[in-house]
Amino acid sequence: MGGYMEAKMNRRDFIKVSAATAATAAAGYAPGAASKEEIERTIAETKFIDIHAHCTEFEMPPVYIKDMKPLCEPDDLVGYYDRIGVEKGVILALCNPENFIGGMTTEQILRTCARAPDRFIPSVGIDPRGLGNNAFGDFEYVFKYYRDKGCKVCGEVCANLHFLDPIMQNYFKGCEAAGLPLTFHIAADQDWLYGIIDEKGLPELEICLQRFPKLRFFGHSQSFWCEIGKYRTWEERTGFPKYPVEEGRIPQLMRKYPNLYGDLSAGSGNNSLARDPDYAGKFLTEFQDRLMFGIDICAPKGFISPLADTMKMLLRTGRITPKVYRKVCRENQLRELGLS
Question: What average pLDDT is seen over the chain?
Answer without folding.
Answer: 88
